[in-house]
Amino acid sequence: MVLNVTEIQEILPHRYPFLLVDRIIELEPMKRAVGIKNVTMTEAHFQGHFPGQPVMPGVLILEAMAQVGGVAMLYPEENRGKIAYFGAMERVKFRKPAIPGDQLRMVAELIKVRGSIGKIFCQAYVEEQLVAEGEFTFALKAPEKK
């Protein structure tokens, strides 16, 4: 299953400037998702990270990977409208910087789910080179009513 950015916005609550997934190229709900993030020089964080040598902040790479996992978890109708909150990050490693012009391919695989708590293993690649990886624990919660 392939999802464009408009379809991703029907699943994830994130919006500009924090939606960090441009396309889902593979999706098995509640199991696995593969997403794409096009890294472009027009992103605001490159103004200061780092002037003259732009590098995508590692925390944004982690967030992009988690958003791909979020699509896999939030796609089923019973999870639509919920928000996935981080509980923990483990075994996070950065292998190579991502720079403008790169295309991140992020692979998220569900490790386990118990009730509203889940764990995913994610990896981000540029071409075939591993850029970052980690395990993310999250809790799915309905948004609070105002």
UniProtKB/TrEMBL annotation:
InterPro entries: FabA_FabZ, FabZ, HotDog_dom_sf. It catalyses: a (3R)-hydroxyacyl-[ACP] = a (2E)-enoyl-[ACP] + H2O. The active site is at residue 49. It holds the Pfam family FabA. Coiled coil: none annotated. GO terms for molecular function: (3R)-hydroxyacyl-[acyl-carrier-protein] dehydratase activity. GO terms for cellular component: cytoplasm; membrane. Keywords: Cytoplasm, Lipid A biosynthesis, Lipid biosynthesis, Lipid metabolism, Lyase. Gene3D superfamilies: Hotdog Thioesterase (3.10.129.10). Its EC number is 4.2.1.59. Involved in unsaturated fatty acids biosynthesis. Catalyzes the dehydration of short chain beta-hydroxyacyl-ACPs and long chain saturated and unsaturated beta-hydroxyacyl-ACPs. Belongs to the thioester dehydratase family. FabZ subfamily. This is 3-hydroxyacyl-[acyl-carrier-protein] dehydratase FabZ.
